[in-house]
Amino acid sequence: MSTLTNMPFRSVFVAGLTLLLAGCWERPPLEVTQGGYRGTAMGAVNTRSAVEKKAALNVPPAVIDAAPAGGPSASSIYKNVPVLGGLGIGEFTRTMVAMTNWVSPKEGCNYCHKAGDDFSSDALYTKVVARRMLQMTQSLNSDWKAHVGTTGVTCYTCHRGQPVPQEIWFAPAGNKQAARMVGNDAGQNKPATAIGLTSLPYDPFSLYLTGAKEIRVAATTALPTPAKHTMQETESTYALMVHMSEGLGVNCTFCHNSQSFSSWEGSTPQRVTAWHGIRMARDVNNKYLVPLTPAFPAERKGPQGDIGKVNCTTCHQGVNKPLLGAQMAKDYTAILAAVPVPAVPTPEPIAVATKAAPVKK
Whole-structure pTM over 0.70, yes or no? Predict the structure, then answer.
């Protein structure tokens, strides 16, 4: 009889289970990051392989060499450059090359500019969208420093070399059974990766990242009448929090003190940053993206006819600082703030000498 046959059943089971799970476990040392106050266990534990994988996915592209200063402005060379026309022609060209590398390296310039046409043409919707996205990026870097800090934002932050960012969201298709007693899913119990495959409402984004629904679980008064926050609102809040945790690759204690999740006094500084981030995403969606809906073709829209919008994962993609905090924006002045376009001087009216008409007698 073989040795395996003589082994007790428990030993065989344990040996088999160990072999099965060997690839799921990782030996120490683990990466432990203390994110909150000492003694409160507000830390995160990561395996070495997870840290290495995230690092490999968040390598910023090389910075293009700076262009020589001076020279004529882009608006004096090209037509129809209302956003970047104030740049010198060298820096303008450098910015265009960088944008192509960040967004459409395979498609090249023709992704926004119609082949064989004048560069000034707005025939392709992608150029119309790109112009508005430039203005959005300038706004993020100048008006939302409370969230982006010194890291800043470039086109690459979201696009990562793809014309369409990988992490965007659409309003989900309507529930055909919503009016019936049986079959109404109440907006949950669908395996949505954006909320960590939880049994929670699968579209918290329409409530909080386009809508301005109050994000709250606990009431602020004792026994409120009527109740201000329903169970469904509570679940939607949890769904948003799960999304933020997944999108940033952190746990709840990255922002909250688990002794009292609602208390701001015991929370980490990151909670304030996250508060601004939610409102920044809402501003991006409502001010820059939703108004572009008519410009997009049908194949780029979701089941409800809306266009792709941003959430936390769009920029962060699994790390608490996009691209692990690489400060790309500082190397491209055009996307740090709006660049004034030189006004075209109005020519002085030409005085025309006229000869007085003879007076009839």
Answer: yes
| Beta carbons of 320 and 333 less than 8 angstroms apart | no
pLDDT means per 10 residues in the chain (361 residues)? 51 57 60 70 75 88 91 92 93 96 96 88 95 96 94 96 96 71 67 84 93 82 68 89 93 87 89 96 97 96 96 95 93 85 56 45 43
* Calpha distance 284→139 (Å, rounded): 9
**3-class SS of residue 96:** helix
Q: Is the CB of residue 137 less than 8 Å from the CB of residue 148?
A: no
Q: Which residues of 312-325 are buried (b: 16+ CB within 10 A; e: fewer)?
A: bbbbbbbbbebbee
The CA-atom distances, in angstroms, between 44 and each of 24, 34, 53 are 19, 7, 17
The answer to whether the CB of 132 falls within 8 A of the CB of 140 is no
The phi and psi torsions of 261 (rounded to 5 degrees) equal: -60, -30
d(CA 51, CA 31): 8
In whole angstroms, give the CA distance from residue 237 to residue 240: 5
Characterize 120-129 residue by residue with b for buried, 16 or more Cβ atoms within 10 angstroms of its Cβ, and e for exposed: eeeebebbeb
Q: Which amino acid appears at position 323 of this protein?
A: L
User: CA–CA separation, 86 vs 34, rounded Å?
Assistant: 46
Q: Is the dihedral of CA 289, 295, 301, 306 positive or negative?
A: positive
Ramachandran class of 346: left when φ > 0, alpha when ψ lies in -120 to 50, beta otherwise:
beta
Distance CA 121, CA 112 (A): 10
Q: What is the C-alpha to C-alpha distance for residues 93 and 96, in angstroms, rounded to an integer?
A: 5
Report in angstroms the alpha-carbon separations of 217 from 192, 236, 241.
22, 9, 11
